[in-house]
Specification:
The complex is a heterodimer of chains A (about 170) and B (about 425). In chain A, about 80% of the residues lie in helices and about 0% in strands. Chain A has about 170 residues and is mainly α. Chain B is α+β, with helices and mostly antiparallel strands and about 425 residues long. In chain B, the strands form six sheets. In chain B, strands 2, 6, 8, 11, 12 and 13 form a six-stranded antiparallel sheet that branches. The radius of gyration of chain B is 33 Å and the shape is elongated. The N and C termini of chain B lie far apart (about 70 Å). In chain B, about 40% of the residues are buried. Classes of the chains: A mainly alpha (about 170), B alpha+beta (about 425). At the A-B interface, helix 3, helix 4, helix 5 and helix 6 of A face helix 1, helix 2, strand 6 and strand 8 of B.
């Protein structure tokens, strides 16, 4: 039996804790679902099969969907907990590959991912709260569509450049 | 340089399901705020899958040297060339024959995304003799916010040779028959050489330099010196490569084989230096026969064959058929190294002895190579095992085969001396 790396154990435990803690404000059946999610997320940190990870995320998603009936704040906290938990579980899987390697790079990458996701969620949440006039809303829509198209064009150009180099 | 296509991270399907699910939920409920639930997953998906091109990756493994002795530590480097900005995990599959020293438990590294070339140094210990390779080098590459993973694997490591440690021995085994080339073993024949054999009255045809003037003066008649010719002998080193019934060479068996190889190499060196012709044969899991030869070429052939045998046994390769040992050169002294784990080897040795072939056995004691017994059943099993070995030991000794036991604290010189005495005693009885 191989010993478990402390960093992996801590990351996996934190992942489960976060996933479950997000559903505490909702309570009741949602909390029960959240606890199940926490267990599954912790388990997915130690198991490398894709199905285990997917099941944990989807069960967490159901808990979040149920929490929407308890108000916006409960739903946001539940999704925040699930997202952070899933990312910490992913970090644990990466750390499990090497007990001796420094974890700083992977921890920084995980923190970057978590902060990006939270920032995106916060932006959408703020946008949904704002009561913008039709003109402002249309301008925002056009800007967003333009940004998306530009992103797709840049990616397409990179891909074709990469293909030419590969060939 | 390999072109590698990515695979998706394990989170991808789950995140995609949540992003789509929450968007649908927002549409169904007509609630823009619900979109915020989908946003973290959607953004990670968008960033993570933004660049999923095939990438070019190459890996090379280099060793400081390529020939080592057992127990030596080898330094080497792994050089990975890949696009910049990719975090990586590099791991090397374990293979028999070596163990990692630095990193200690396994050869695994995590590398940052800087630069296009990553060089990781490593140190391994050569555990068993033979020709070995590093395992496959597996590389896992991913971006900082990435759901695409590139996983190339390279199995192109160069081989390195691990030589058995030479033991110090001072004596030579006396081969029973001699050949016509110059060597240090004295033949019973009388001919030109350097070692004095006898005096005899001068006869026409004797060379002037053979006349012993002092003896001639004493006998008042011309006396000629006669000399032994300097000739070389043939030695065949016979290795027992039989393994246990599970067809797996255990650590103790590999250690026993390594001990046999060390002794075989030491004895071979000594005899080759003495202009003898040395051959090698292996019987058991690995079967090989190298005809006795002399000189540097024989030395290299012997070493190569010895390393191949060690490598094949360690890697678990096995022979399909056995070779009849009667094909071994008729006049050669056969020196067998065996732990007597398999009775077939003892039967082969007895057959050779009964056929009048000069054969001597070095019994390699395994008890000191085994870990401490776990319980009473283990103790009992070992006693039964030892009884079987003792029985074959007694059978060989009763049949008149010179046999000496080699334990961890035995000196190879002492064992060779004891074998010589046993052989002379057996010769005197005949």
């Amino acid at each position: 039996m191989s010993a478990i790396d402390v960093r992996v154990a801590v990351a996996a435990a934190l992942a489960g804790l976060c996933a479950a803690a997000g559903t505490v404000p909702a309570g009741g059946g949602v909390l029960a679902m959240g606890l199940l999610t926490g267990i599954l997320v912790t388990r997915s940190a130690f198991r490398r099969e894709e199905a285990d990870v997917t099941v944990a995320i989807v069960v967490g998603g159901i808990a979040v969907a149920l929490s929407t009936g308890h108000g916006r704040a409960a739903a946001v906290l539940a999704v925040l907990g699930l997202f952070v938990g899933c990312e910490l579980a992913a970090l644990a899987r990466v750390l499990a590959a090497d007990a001796d390697a420094p974890a700083r790079t992977d921890v920084a990458a995980t923190l970057l991912t978590i902060s990006t996701g939270i920032a995106a969620g916060a932006a959408v949440l703020i946008a949904s709260v704002l009561r913008a006039g039709p003109v402002l809303a249309n301008v925002a829509l056009v800007l967003a569509a333009s940004a998306a198209l530009a992103g797709l064009a840049i990616r397409s150009r990179r891909s074709s450049g990469g293909s030419a180099r590969n060939s | 340089m390999a072109v590698i296509r990515p695979r998706r991270d394990r989170r991808t399907i789950g995140y995609a399901a949540l992003a789509v699910g929450f968007v649908v939920l927002a549409l169904l409920r007509g609630s823009p705020g619900t979109l915020a639930l989908a946003a973290p997953f959607a953004v990670v998906l968008a960033f993570g899958l933004r660049d999923i091109r095939a990438i070019e990756v190459s890996a090379t493994v280099e060793f400081e040297m390529n020939t080592f002795f057992e127990g030596d530590e080898l330094n080497g480097t792994i050089r990975i060339e890949r696009p910049t900005g990719l975090l990586g995990t590099i791991s090397v599959d374990n293979r028999p024959g070596w163990s990692p020293v630095d990193p200690e438990d396994a050869l695994v590294w995590t590398t940052p995304g800087d630069g296009t070339v990553v060089v990781v140094p490593f140190r391994i210990r050569a555990d068993s003799w033979g020709r070995h390779r590093l395992g496959a080098v597996n590389v896992v590459l991913r971006r900082k916010i990435g759901l695409a993973v590139w996983e190339p694997s390279f199995d192109l490591s160069p081989t390195f040779a691990v030589l058995p440690n030479p033991q110090s021995i001072r004596q030579l085994l006396p081969p029973p028959a001699s050949q016509a080339t110059a060597g240090v073993h004295i033949s019973r024949l009388v001919a030109d050489g350097f070692d004095f054999a006898e005096l005899r009255p001068f006869s026409p045809g004797d060379r002037l330099r053979d006349i012993n003037w002092r003896a001639s003066a004493r006998f008042d008649q011309l006396q000629s010196n006669r000399r032994h010719p300097d000739r070389s002998g043939e030695v065949v080193l016979l290795l027992d490569t039989f393994v246990d019934s599970a067809r797996v060479a255990s650590t103790a068996q590999q250690a026993a084989l390594a001990r046999a190889a060390r002794a075989a190499w030491s004895i071979a060196q000594l005899h080759l230096n003495a202009q003898d012709r040395v051959g090698l044969a292996a019987q058991g899991r690995v079967v090989t026969q190298l005809r006795p030869r002399g000189g540097d070429r024989a030395r290299y052939e012997l070493l190569t064959t010895l390393l191949s045998v060690g490598g094949m046994v360690t890697a678990g390769e096995s022979a399909v058929t056995r070779q009849p040992l009667s094909r071994l050169p008729a006049g050669a002294l056969i020196l067998a190294f065996t732990p007597l784990l398999d009775q077939r080897f003892a039967v082969d040795v007895l057959s050779l002895h009964r056929a009048g072939r000069p054969v001597m056995v070095i019994l390699i004691e395994l008890r000191d190579l085994l870990p401490p017994p776990l319980d009473n059943a283990d103790v009992m099993a070992r006693r039964l095992y030892q009884m079987a070995i003792d029985q074959w030991h007694d059978n060989l000794v009763d049949a008149g085969v010179p046999l000496s036991v080699w334990t961890s604290d035995s000196d190879l010189s002492g064992i060779i001396g004891s074998l010589n005495r046993l052989r002379h005693r057996a010769g005197a009885r005949r």
